[in-house]
Write a structure and sequence with these properties.
Blueprint (H helix, E strand, L loop, with lengths): L5 H19 L9 H15 L5 H7 L2 H19 L2 H10 L5 H19 L1 H18 L4 H16 L7 H10 L3 H27 L83 H11 L6 H42 L4 H16 L4 H4 L4 H19 L2 H9 L8 H17 L2 H17 L3 H17 L9 H12 L9 H24 L2
Helix pairs in contact: 1-2, 1-15, 2-15, 3-15, 4-9, 4-12, 4-13, 5-6, 5-7, 6-7, 6-8, 6-10, 7-8, 7-20, 8-10, 8-20, 9-18, 9-19, 10-21, 11-12, 12-13, 17-18, 17-19, 18-19, 19-21
Length: 527
């Protein structure tokens, strides 16, 4: 592609530079408007400077990606309400045999959760719980926090719904859900094992096996308000607000706060029975109203003890019914989510499969969906809209094409040297320009170069791009949103606060990223 006139190149580059600065440094002093506004500003400047036309800007917005992102956000919200993440937290500590065992479990659970529910969501939910069991057992938090963030990034590479850049690759490449998973799964499995091995080697002496880790099942995963997290990129869904320790549902789980989604089936707390038959209880509603009537009945000569026993029997039946309804609702949520995954594996349209599952959950809930829909990260959707337009405008300047024309002879995937050079370019750009813009800038070009070799080489090129751009997030603390979510929530934890520094992360992240990336390249290339 030929370079555009100098003026258009300069204006397009300036617009993209503004977008990049605000995407990487959202609170930059001279323009602290944040990532979403920065993305829209970059898009507006591309149109205003006539780098692209208004019609081209509208066409640049990829609706299938936005639909898939929205659907997975809604499903994640309902899975959180159904206690999926609390069950994962309990799995971490159930009959654990010490620090080393707990570290391995953290890697496995984090990788699994991120592959199904996105890496950022996994880190938002599990950070506080991991800090808790580490502190309770006199274990250093650092290796567990590193295990959570790094394994979440590696695990998210396994599926198209694991992270935003995979969503982009899956839609643009046309690779089916099943082919994507089976193409990257071997690299993901080995990568998680190698990552855990590196952590064990680095922190073997610090992990004590003297105390067996076994947290009671009543301990819940406390979710930290996501608004308090300052992330490098966005979390796919806004999770629940903090939950009070004393607020419990009838199934023993924490009840959501008033601002979030209400529990599907809940009942008002019952006040203690009056000890004096002459004491009147104010009229209420439901159970409380019947209780007041029973107690007042004692004043009219009816035996209060018999009435109280009758009331207790009715109350137990109602509580049992509410518990049964709550369990049935949670089971239906899991079934619908499983059905969505089956539809994706069968090769059905990914965007509409996710949207269908989301709407099925909303209908199943059978109440006003606004509280749950408010938890969707609409700023993320707007950020993607602006980014699509900004990147498309920058592509039209001809600079990305000129860069790729220079690199292509050295970065062809039909040679080992070319694969290594391509991986290094992706690693560098993913940490400098962020992984999603890197995928948008390089994806089509890398695939076109590989397609000239063979269709199989084109598929491998997309999978290599997905693998390297995702694992690149482990290189430094600023490399991925998951890293910063873990770091920020650990620092702000009221009871178990811990500061994970940039250099302490780099000591592990730099060598681990190079090793895990290299092993993944060998496994994906051999498919």
């Amino acid at each position: 592609m030929a370079m555009e006139p100098t003026v258009k190149v300069a204006l397009g580059t300036a617009s993209f530079a503004i977008f990049w600065v605000l995407a990487v440094f959202p609170a930059v002093p001279f323009l602290p408007i944040g990532r979403t506004a920065g993305s829209l500003l970059g898009a507006m400047l591309m149109v205003l400077f006539n780098v692209i036309t208004a019609d081209e800007a509208y066409a640049a917005v990829d609706l299938p990606i936005l639909g898939l992102l929205f659907g997975t956000m809604v499903v994640s919200v309902y899975l959180e309400r159904a206690d999926m993440f609390r069950h994962l937290g309990r799995l971490l500590s159930w009959r654990s045999r010490g620090g080393k065992d707990l570290l391995v479990r953290t890697c496995v659970v984090s990788a699994l959760a991120s592959a199904l529910f996105t890496n950022d969501t996994c880190c938002v939910v599990l950070t506080e719980f991991i800090l808790k069991i580490a502190r309770q057992n006199n274990l250093p938090p650092k290796p567990f926090l590193l295990a959570l963030a790094s394994s979440a990034n590696i695990g998210s590479a396994a599926t198209p719904i694991g992270n935003p850049q995979n969503l982009v690759i899956a839609v643009q490449s046309g690779i089916s859900f099943g082919d994507f998973v089976f193409g990257i799964l071997p690299a993901t499995l080995v990568g998680v094992v190698v990552n855990a091995g590196i952590l064990l080697c680095l922190y073997w002496r610090e992990l004590s096996d003297e105390k067996c880790v076994d947290v009671a099942h009543d301990d819940a995963v406390e979710v930290v308000e996501e608004d308090d997290v300052t992330s490098h990129r966005f979390s796919p869904a806004t999770m629940s607000h903090p939950r009070g320790r004393g607020a419990r549902q009838i199934d023993g789980s924490d009840a959501p706060d008033a601002a979030g989604c209400e529990a599907h089936c809940c009942c008002e707390p019952v006040k203690p029975a009056a000890t004096n038959g002459d004491t009147k209880v104010p009229d209420g509603v439901g159970i409380h109203q019947r209780r007041g009537s029973v107690l007042r009945g004692g004043e009219n000569g009816v035996a209060p003890v018999a009435k109280e026993q009758e009331y207790n029997s009715v109350e137990k039946e109602e509580v049992a019914m509410e518990e049964w309804k709550n369990k049935l609702w949670k089971t239906c949520v899991y079934i619908i989510t499983f059905g969505m995954l089956v539809a994706l594996l069968l090769g059905l349209n990914m965007s509409w499969s996710a949207i269908t599952a989301a709407l099925a959950l909303i209908v199943l809930d059978f109440k006003d969906a606004r509280p749950c829909l408010e938890k969707v990260s609409y700023p993320l959707l707007l950020f993607f809209c602006g980014m699509f337009i900004t990147v498309d405008g920058f592509n039209k300047t001809g600079i990305p094409s000129a860069f790729w024309e220079f690199m292509e002879p050295y970065a062809r995937i039909d040679t080992p040297t070319g694969v290594v050079i391509l991986a290094l370019v992706i690693l560098f750009l993913s940490n400098v320009a962020s992984n999603v813009p890197t995928v948008l800038l390089l994806g089509a070009r890398v695939a076109a170069s590989a397609a000239a070799i063979s269709p199989a080489a084109e598929t491998n090129a997309w999978l290599l791009l997905a693998w390297v751009s995702t694992v690149a997030g482990n290189l430094s603390l600023l490399g991925s949103a998951a890293n910063l979510i873990v770091c920020e929530q650990a620092r702000r934890s009221r009871q178990f606060g811990y500061t994970l520094s940039f250099f302490s992360h780099l000591q592990f992240g730099f060598p681990a990223t190079l090793v895990v990336t290299g092993i993944g390249l060998l496994l994906i290339k051999s498919n």
